[in-house]
Write a structure and sequence with these properties.
By secondary structure, the chain is an alpha+beta fold. The protein is built from four helices and four strands; from the N terminus they run ααββαββα. The longest helix is centred in the last third of the chain and has 28 residues.
């Protein structure tokens, strides 16, 4: 995680809105549109906003059972893998929309599809984005742990 992003997160924590729920806070951290007055948080420039413009790492694949979104996630330790799987399952339960997850050592493979119509829908795309956010959290945890050990 960049130093600018770390500073922004520190600022957000200092000025956290006690009424803001976890989802809104997560949306804000991950750069998704949230109606929040950012002018009250120091003098942040556009470069300070944590928006990652990477293309999605999800593959759109045509299979014998229709089209799916597929992605593999790699982890450096069991703790971050466990966090990722736990948070992903909580999210899927909350949305009542589930993906197929396969765990092999420190690798998680996920496949998304709206099974009723055997196609990728907006719900699958939204879930893939939220799972990406959870994965990004694990990468942040790893970078903070590495910096604290230095």
């Amino acid at each position: 995680m960049s130093l600018k992003l770390h500073k922004m997160m520190s600022l957000l924590n200092e000025h956290a809105d006690p009424v803001m729920n976890n989802q809104t806070y997560s949306d804000l951290i991950h750069g998704r549109g949230v109606s929040t007055n950012m002018h009250s948080i120091a003098d942040l420039s556009f470069e300070d906003v944590p928006i990652i413009l990477d293309k999605s790492k999800w593959s759109h694949v045509e299979t014998g059972s229709g089209e799916v979104l597929s992605r593999t996630f790699n982890f450096l330790n069991f703790q971050t893998l466990f966090y990722f799987v736990s948070e992903s399952l909580k999210l899927q339960e909350k949305l009542n929309h589930h993906c197929v997850m396969k765990i092999d050592e420190l690798v998680v493979s996920a496949v998304l599809q709206t099974k009723d119509i055997q196609e990728v829908t907006e719900l699958d795309i939204m879930l893939s984005e939220r799972i990406n956010d959870i994965y990004e959290d694990t990468q942040y945890f790893h970078s903070v742990g590495k910096n604290e050990r230095s």
